[in-house]
UniProtKB/TrEMBL annotation:
Keywords: ATP-binding, Ligase, Nucleotide-binding, Purine biosynthesis. It holds the Pfam family SAICAR_synt. Residues 7-233 form the SAICAR synthetase/ADE2 N-terminal domain. It is an enzyme of class 6 (ligase). This is Phosphoribosylaminoimidazole-succinocarboxamide synthase. HAMAP family: SAICAR_synth.
Length: 235
């Protein structure tokens, strides 16, 4: 098992460590849960393990479809080994149904299905509260190489197709999700960070019950119960 050499960064949900192999990092998934830019915060024992396990399963599914990511393997309950990547400060959000900020911004009714998946870009900046941006902003601000912009959008839509079908088979509706991208050690561009209920909206297909982080954001029920239900269905 790779050894931790030095802590590089600690965020709201994960700690990133260098390993003895310079092109590989170790991610430690914390039990900390935050919402609204960290204004709401809690420690929920077992949450990190659930996110690590769910994210690992999703990465493995994507790999089977040839989607490039930084994921190498799940090491333990809370630890994941990944390729070191030069992360772009851009979040790519794919929405199949209206929920969250798009409801407030554009007046859609929550749960309204879009005719086609909606792809949005956000500037990853805590200081600016992750503002909505367009492709021209990404080019102007040099947030990512110009040639990667269509690749990120194309990959996000392919991931949406794969995961929408996968979750549907397990009685779950994929409402929306966020991806981050970066340049991997071999020079290719792939998905980085995590793909978990922290970064997706997942609703029960029959009842509409929210199984994701909105349970914590809006006090809709036990967060861990929702995450455990997702893991039980997809395992």
């Amino acid at each position: 098992m790779p050894e931790k050499v030095k802590k590089l960064y600690e965020g709201k949900a994960k700690v990133v460590y260098e390993t003895e192999e310079p092109d590989k990092l170790l991610l430690y998934f914390k039990d900390t849960t935050t919402a609204f830019d960290g204004v709401k915060k809690a420690e929920l024992k077992g949450k990190g393990s659930l996110n690590n396990t769910i994210s690992s399963l999703i990465f493995e599914i994507l790999h089977r479809y040839g989607i490039k990511t930084h994921y190498i393997q799940k090491l333990s309950d809370n630890e994941m080994l990944v390729w070191k990547a030069e992360r772009f400060p851009v979040e790519v959000v794919v929405r199949n149904f209206a929920a969250g900020s798009v409801v407030k911004r554009l007046g859609f009714k929550e749960g309204q299905r879009f005719k086609e998946p909606l792809v949005e870009f956000f500037y990853k900046s805590d200081e600016l509260h992750d503002p909505l941006i367009c492709e021209s902003h990404i080019e102007l601000m040099e947030l990512a190489p110009t040639e990667t912009i269509p690749l990120m959008k194309e990959t996000a839509l392919k991931v949406n197709e794969i995961l929408s079908g996968f979750f549907k088979e397990h009685g779950i509706t994929l409402v929306d999700f966020k991806l981050e991208f970066g340049k991997l050690p071999d020079g290719s561009v792939g998905i980085v960070d995590e793909i978990s209920p922290d970064s997706m909206r997942l609703w029960d297909s029959e009842t509409g019950e929210k199984l994701d982080k909105d349970r914590f954001r809006f006090d809709l029920g036990d967060l861990l119960e929702g995450y455990r239900e997702i893991l039980k269905r997809i395992s």
